[in-house]
Amino acid sequence: MALTKEEKQEVITKFAQAKGDTGSPEIQVAILTKEVEKLQSHLADNKHDSPAKRGILSKISKRRRLLRYLSDHNKERYSKLIKELGLKK
């Protein structure tokens, strides 16, 4: 369940730290969060889709690693991102 170009561009413009920023941890976490949400809605209808389950678990673990990196290096940006995305921590 990939994001469309428009959805991805919307996320990038919302979470970019500077003009032209496309790879900051905030953007990566936000994109992964959107992809996880899409996969969750897909899995609600298709409970036995094992490759989708594996995909969602890998995206969640990558997001967790990025969040850990951000919390170690910049607590302020981490807490702001968690608040905006509505994640637990």
Structural description of this entry:
The chain is an all-alpha fold. It has a domain of 55 residues: Helix Hairpins, CATH 1.10.287.10. Helices cover 75% and strands 0% of the residues. It contains four helices and no strands. The radius of gyration is 14 Å and the shape is globular. The protein starts with a helix and ends with a helix. The mean pLDDT is 95.
Key terms for this structure?
89 residues; mainly alpha; 4 helices; Helix Hairpins
Layout of secondary structure:
Layout (H helix, E strand, L loop, with lengths): L4 H11 L9 H21 L4 H24 L1 H11 L4
Distance between the termini: 26 Å
Runs in which pLDDT lies below 50 for 5 or more consecutive residues are none
Task: Output the helix-strand order.
Answer: HHHH
- pLDDT average, as an integer? 95
Principal-axes geometry comes out as: globular
Q: Percent range for helical residues?
A: over 70%
Profile the largest sheet: none
Outline of the structure:
Helix content is about 75%, strand content about 0%. The protein has about 90 residues and is mostly helical.
